[in-house]
Amino acid sequence: VSATCVRVPVFVGHSESVNIEFEEEISVEEVREILEDAPGIQVRDRHETGGYVTPIEIVGENDVFISRIRKDNTVKHGINLWVVADNLRKGAALNAIQIAEVDKTNGSIFTISWEEMALQAHQARREKNTRAAA
């Protein structure tokens, strides 16, 4: 995977041009179907003027938006994507919570819900404040 992040002055959001090289041939349609079935992903890929997602359109969204799915002819089994997300919503904190919520039947080592995590953090903060006041 090769990602290009272009920094432009926007209030919210980040965008990346992502180039993926697979070991075997994969079609644009297969990639689109896989992404459409993935939780937390929205595909908005219209091959027309304005048919791709920009940061201004996704402000306040938790999902990651994919558009401009196309073949990368510079490598043998390549695909290019345009990826956009609200970096204030879909960032490290939300990702950590979503990972922690993965059911342990899926092989995850995490068995704590985000509510439990928040409660534990609150209790730890309260205990720290109590010790500091003593």
Keywords summarizing the entry:
single chain, alpha+beta, 3 helices
General form: elongated
Largest β sheet strand count, sense and barrel closure: 5 strands, mixed
Order of helices and strands: EEHEEEHH
Strand content: 15-25%
Give, in spatial order, the strands making up the sheet with the most strands: 1-2-5-4-3
Helix run count: 3
Helical proportion, percent range: 25-40%
Kindly report how far apart the N and C termini lie: 52 Å
**Radius of gyration using CA atoms only:** 19 Å
Derived structural class: alpha+beta
Average pLDDT, all residues: 79
Oligomer: single chain
Say how many strands there are: 5
Low-confidence stretches: none
What does this structure look like?
This protein is an alpha+beta fold. 29% of the residues lie in helices and 24% in strands. The protein has three helices and five strands. The chain has helices at residues 28-37, 92-100, 114-133; strands spanning 2-5, 14-21, 41-43, 64-72, 78-85. A five-stranded mixed β-sheet has the order 1-2-5-4-3, with helices on one face. The longest helix is centred in the C-terminal third of the chain and has 20 residues, at 114-133. The protein is elongated, with a radius of gyration of 19 Å. The mean pLDDT is 79.
Map the helices and strands.
Layout lengths: L1 E4 L8 E8 L6 H10 L3 E3 L20 E9 L5 E8 L6 H9 L13 H20 L1
Parallel strand pairs: 3-4
Antiparallel strand pairs: 1-2, 2-5, 4-5
Q: What's this, in brief?
A:
With 134 residues, the protein is α+β, with helices and mostly antiparallel strands. The chain has helices at 28-37, 92-100, 114-133; strands spanning 2-5, 14-21, 41-43, 64-72, 78-85.
